[in-house]
Amino acid sequence: MLAVSRALHARPRRRPSPRRAGVRRPAFAAGEAPEQTVTAIEPQGEQRVEPVPPPPEQEVAALDPQSEQQVTSGQRGAVRRGFETAGKVALGVLAAGVSVGVMLAELILL
User: Phi/psi at 71 (nearest 5 deg)?
Assistant: First the structure.
């Protein structure tokens, strides 16, 4: 009965302080800074600075009124447009399949 009452009223143990445990701190942690020296580095050779010339200005050419109005018509045939659309659809389906596959692989591996 005596052992039970001591266990119920026992104080929690404290961690031993570093001084009691035999752990010593370095001298600089106690407020003393280690000695520092500054060493000048001499350049190996002469250094030269050369200015970079600015890029040349862009030339602006005036257009005559007729050349402004000339627009080439980019007509595509119906078959070509159909193949381009089918290619875009196939690429979208492939991208969706890859995305779903990667998501499932991540879920399985987690």
Answer: -125, 130
Instruction: Measure the CA–CA gap between 104 and 36, rounded to whole angstroms.
Output: 58
For residues 64 and 98, give the distance between their C-alpha atoms in angstroms, rounded to a whole number.
52
Comparing 6 with 54, which gets the higher pLDDT? 54
Which is more confidently placed, 73 or 36?
A: 36
Tokens found for residue 71: 């627009």
| pLDDT tens-digit readout, 40-87 | 888 777 778 888 888 777 777 777 777 666 666 667 888 999 999 999
| pLDDT attached to residue 29 | 56
3-state secondary structure the chain: CHHHHHHHCCCCCCCCCHHHHCCCCCHHHHCCCCCCCCCCCCCCCCCCCCCCCCCCCCCCCCCCHHHHHCCCCCCCCHHHHHHHHHHHHHHHHHHHHHHHHHHHHHHHHC
